[in-house]
User: Fold this.
Amino acid sequence: MEKLIITAAICGAEVLKEHNPAVPYTVEECVREAKSAYEAGASIIHLHVRWDDGTPTQDKDRFKIIMDAIKAEIPDVIIQPSTGGAVGMSNDERLQPTELNPEMATLDCGTLNFGGDEVFMNTENTIKYFAERMIERGIKPELECFDKSMIDMALRLHKKGYIKDPMHFDLVMGVNGGITGELRDFVFLVDSLPAGSTYTVAGVGRFEFPLAMAAIIYGGHVRVGFEDNVYLSKGVLAKSNGELVAKVVRMAKELGREIATPAEARQILGLKAI
Ligand code: KMH
Ligand code: ZN
Assistant:
């Protein structure tokens, strides 16, 4: 089976230090968390950034400072900025990190309810606009699908040329408003993906580790991190993103699945070697 790519979503836009004091806001904290995840076995860092007070931002200069600081410590890691940002941001605000020409970035493939009164807006035209930007700049999209309909959207836009092969999906499961993280839903989503594509699974909250296990067995890849879950086990806060990654590495070892280095992850995903 293909080696396992582990992505660490170290920060997110919504999770706060009130949820777990190790959630990174400052440049130094982001570097610390990215490094802990990388040293534990992550090859991709899914990156949101914050101002020092924790406010989410898509500011290009803030991204540049944090991406450069991470790269200075761990030059071969793949950094995948978010273009989802936080609920309520405009499209152009969200797109700012693409101006830095990262190797990858997220492309959210549909609109969904996102907690109480919030709606995470991604109309078809928004998705096309983002996808065109990524093609122009040679950025590989990670297709964020929070429900089956979003896979269908990605496939339609692929047919129209907005998304190129090989497609790479992130099945985000367990957000209130999206698909749950039950195993039957995982199998349903994976069976809906086109041949030749790759996928990672991001289980939110209590779904994180059961879905990681499923993906390890099923031949997918895994995303963990504070963006999705702050607990190492029931009631026990993780001290770092690295602890969450290390747990996935242990699970993979038990099941005989080797961990991909960043160079191997680039090869699996069809990214240029660095
Ligand atoms: N913060 C969420 C509203 C992404 O990174 O592309 C959107 C999100 C998805 O996290
Ligand atoms: Zn994200």
